[in-house]
Amino acid sequence: MLHFESWKITLIVLLCAAGLAYSAPNFVPRDSLEGVPGWLPNQQINLGLDLRGGSYMLLEVDTSSLIQDRLQSLVNDVRAALRSERILYTGLGIRNSEVTVRITQPDDVQKAREAIDGVGTTVAGNVFSAVPERDIAVSVNGQNITVVLTEPAIVARTQSAVQQSIEIVRRRIDELGTTEPVIQQQGTSRILVQVPGLDDPQRLKELLGQTAKMNFRLVSNAMSGEQALATRTVPTGTEILFMAESPDVPVLVERRIMVGGDRLVDAQPAFDQQTGAPVVNFRFDSTGARQFGEVTRTSVGRPFAIVLDGKVISAPVIREPIMGGSGQISGNFTVQAANDLAILLRAGALPAPLNVLEERTVGPGLGADSIAAGEIAAVIGSVAVVAFMIASYGFFGVLAVVALTLNMAMIFAVLSVLQATLTLPGIAGIVLTIGMAVDANVLIYERIREEIAAGKSPVPAIETGYNRALSSILDANITTLISAAILFQMGSGPVRGFAVTLGIGIITSVFTAYTVNRLMLSVWIRHRRPKTIYL
Amino acid sequence: MRHLKLISDDTHIPFVKFRRIAVAFSLLVIAASVALFFARGLNFGIDFKGGIMIEIATDGPADLTQLRATMGGLGLGEVQIQEFGQADDVLIRIPSPAEGGEAASQEVVNTVRAALDDVVVEYRRVEVVGPQVSGELVRSGVIAVVLAMALMLVYIWFRFEWQFSLGAIVSLVHDVFATIGILCILQIEFNLQMIAAILTIVGYSMNDTVIVYDRVRENLRKYKKMDLAELVDLSINQTLSRTVITSGTTLLALLALFVFGGEVLRGFTFAMIFGILVGTYSSIFIAAPVILAVGVSRDWSGNTTGKTAEGKSGAKA
Fold first, then answer.
1. How many CB pairs under 8 A join A and B?
2. Is B111 on the interface with A (CB under 8 A)?
3. Tens of pLDDT along B265-299?
4. Residue of B nearest to A384 (CA)
5. With b meaning 16 or more CB within 10 Å and e meaning fewer, what string describes A479-504?
6. Interchain CB contact of A65 with B (< 8 Å)
7. Does the predicted interface ipTM exceed a cut of 0.95?
8. The pTM is what?
9. Do A450 and A420 fall within a single domain?
10. Are A124 and A15 within one domain?
11. CB of A462 closer than 8 Å to CB of A532
């Protein structure tokens, strides 16, 4: 048991050296690593959001609003289809996630059914079904026709909405100029966002909290917003919206969208040349520019509402036709608000609102404090354990401490190389490992003591000690490893960080406390050839 | 220099003799924990209950009375405000709004920020957990603990006999109940970290139990005729020094964490310190007696001959 073949010695020494080398970058300032060539260890441990500060958000695409939008457009399609076939109908609308309509003439029902059926399309992207799946299902009950969205249609729509949302969230976050944001899909309709090191997490939330659906519509000239609000009736084709700045000022705008926000190709914050107020300059693509030119040409003198997420940002009066395809939005913005609006417009609109299911934001101050506290605890814990081990086992205790030190180095090395994330509970896991890692040494040493007490001479006693302790060491560590593995699987965020360090610590500690320790002891025995050992 | 010895080399403490008292005591503790859990309950944090937690740093010692008045005026339900570690550090807990779901929680955060902006130097932490996520966290937490225990049992069953597996589960359940009991008494916040703490306790206690069982198994092979109670006592005494030293080093490390590791980790470390103590107790006083109660088959197939002579030389009994 104490004999090592030379290739094994080489391997063990190499592993320990690698552990020391790869943990080394963590003990120098980060910026001093810039000049280190790529073939040298130069990676530091990735700190979690709770240590470096930052925001974690779990967002969910609002699928019900997605479905509602789709149903609304389905109503429009059905209306158009029935009109073009000159079929009379009543009561076209959405009821309980279904589109229902009553056909006036019983003779028309079959024709109506076919017309409505023609509105649907096939669901794209489903490679597994032999028959292309329809996105709507039409059913007839007497003169009533009901249209529902099929399951595959909803799934496909959700999937594409999530993909699209991720892209837009990414564009918005990139505009903040942060490093290494993580944006990924979770489950069917969720998006996980992790943005480290933000000065103002609130701003991130404001940017992600807006759908940013923008469009340009004419303000109705039938009556004023106040009149409409007072009479509680609105002329057909119009609706009452409120000003974004002052939520109690109503504006009566036409429902018809003259130019959609998807026609925007650029938006930049700027300052108005006359007033000096912050504004947003925008530019349309060629279609948008043509539409914009057409509206401004035919409606000179009328106020033109710029609507963002159902609120009117501003409604300037059109003074002259604008043919160039670019314009300016002014709306009593602060510099930041103008900046953010430009970001939102450039990044594009989300297909559906995002709900924040979970948010965890840690300020940089708390993160730094946590690191400092963790370091102090680790140092004091180590000193206490080292003192205790040396007091208990003397020279053998020193060997255990060397193994412990190597163990710490290897934990840091593995964390650095895997780029695993170290969290505050992760630091706790390391400190806990300091306490538990010596267990293997304690088991072995206690066993050696017993064997010596039973009258064995040093070398056989040591050999038996290692032999007998091995099964206990493995059993004990495998059970803890099971805990760590399950925590890793089930846990989230910081708790997962605890599982990572605990798991790595268990594996490295068996290697250092058993194998490395045994090698050191075998070298010592070969050089000293002790007749008795004092343990 | 003499080495420090917390436990002398040759102890003969009759642990098994105390088993009735220990079992009675433990049953009492478990019953009390269950009663406390239902009567007083755990102080669930926002991870499991949903809600909003905001930690703020103030300029100089925080005026909690003033803060309570400000927050009380916002009509956000039962708001808890407490000093967190330092005088200029305040933790505010706000329940999830009853209506309006996830979006309403964000509204609350905005309202609070607007109200506190004058006194706050830094928002150290803002955590919002919606009802949907908190439900999922409860579920996955419970699954994690149950799954971990089940897997360990399977492992023990595989490595030992079913009697050992039973002893291990009884002591694990004991440890988890006792820990939950103390958390109920002290009303320490039960959050996600606590699940990690409980799983660590389960792992550690299992570790401790396995060491004792390993020795019991070894002695079963060695001393074929020894009375089981005597054999269990011998095994516990033989491993006692290790048990105490390892618990000692682990507790030293955890104490350092408890005292110096900062406020965020305090509850977590406390639970682990308590759990290590209970786990050590249970592997000696609960896990071992269970084997006595159910008995073990002493016919270890495949290991029948040739060991006895070698075993005798190492025997001290």
1. 252
2. no
3. 899 999 999 999 999 999 999 998 888 888 887 75
4. B252
5. bbbbbbbbbbebbbbbbbbbbbbbbb
6. no
7. no
8. 0.83
9. yes
10. no
11. no
